[in-house]
Amino acid sequence: MERARINGVELAYELRGDGAPLVMIHGAQGDQTMFAGLAEVFAEDYRVLTFDQRGSGLSGKPDMPYSIAMLADDTAGLIDHLGMSPAHVIGVSMGGTIAQELALRHPDKVKSLVLGCTTAGGPKAIRLGGGALANAYSTQPMTPEERGRALAEAAFTKGFLDQHPEIIASMIESRRNRPIDSVAFAHRMKAIAEFDAYDRLQQINCPTLVITGADDALVDPENSFIITERIKGANMIVLEPAGHCFWLEQPEQSAVEIAKFLASVK
Hints:
Helices cover about 40% and strands about 20% of the residues. By secondary structure, the chain is of the alpha/beta class. Helix 2 (about 70-80) packs across helix 3 (about 95-105) and helix 5 (about 145-155) crosses helix 7 (about 165-175). The longest helix is centred in the N-terminal third of the chain and has 14 residues, at about 70-80. The mean pLDDT is about 95.
């Protein structure tokens, strides 16, 4: 694991492979380990950057207001630090909002976008409610067992968990190894709540693939249709059966669709 000080915060990152730059941006309470399998696949053809965002994983967790713009600027700074501009960018969930903002604020650093299971935010977004969502994304202190189980049950389809009960144990172990800082997580969740790119999405002019799981219980798939309609020339893929973590539930199909898209970008 490498480290770099970007915009006043220490970011933990890892580089794999050689080739065209490819940056992967994780979700709200995740960290770069969520991309371990996908990063290994793409490292065969790309120079893959995964990193822990401000407030996540092994990176710094300052107690201060966060914004999606701030996290996008952190990403741009790390891309510059590593000489990876312009890069293909994959962002999932909250990482997808950061990827949108990165393309809007730093278009010269983005060669293409893959926006997974994400939203444009704002009043036009389709929001989901219910106890599962509230529990999975609670900003209150939770034990690794409570948080790991809550997120697994919300992020994957029941059928997948029935077939792969080890997923819950794996997510609990991840929370033990990299516990969520509830203060930093609250700042991150507030940043998501305040994000709104809907009226600006037409400014994005790089090739874009929007991808989602048909059974996503955390970010309504309808949000992917909204993004696809707002970004000129964007294409959309719906994977099924697949929940929020589609790249883990459908790893082969996800890799194939993303690889096909990246190969089409000139």
